[in-house]
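User: Please predict the structure of the protein below. I'd like the answer in structure-token form so I can feed it into my own downstream comparison script.

Assistant: Understood. Taking the following sequence of 169 residues as input:
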Amino acid sequence: MEKLQTLGLILLGLAFFVWRMIGKMRETTQQELQERPVTQVPLPSTSFDDLLKQMQRQNNRGNGPAAPTTTPGGRQLPHEEARAARSLEQPAARAVSQERRVTNVSLERTAPVARRGTGMQHDKKSSPPKPPTPAADSSRRSSLNARLRSPAELRDAFVLSEILKRKFE
């Protein structure tokens, strides 16, 4: 019961608020009508086509020569031309990037040029393989060391070792 009384009181307050707002709106409207009486502007009796033709005739006649402007004392004003606008912008300057160019160096070894076969038979061995000499062995080691210092050769050696390595060691 107490909740219904509270709800009724709120609704009564809301109704009073709306009634006062409507009353103020009516008073304001009456006051504005007294201060500024409503006058209706008569609509033009000519049609749009007539107005358009009238404007076209005025444009065809052109504007007459403009009367020279004078000062309040009646003297003619000197003719001045406006200077060209000066801009501080420099659109001709091209923007230059502050980033450095990246120099990409390939680690890949260049592939040898493919040669076509000569058509000769190489079945028979003209000479048996020679056993390695100690001088050749040291040169082979130095060439192997030089090859392993280059990143491309080292990568190739690693890939070959992975391929040729036994599965279980």
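That's the full token string. DSSP finds four helices and no strands in the chain.
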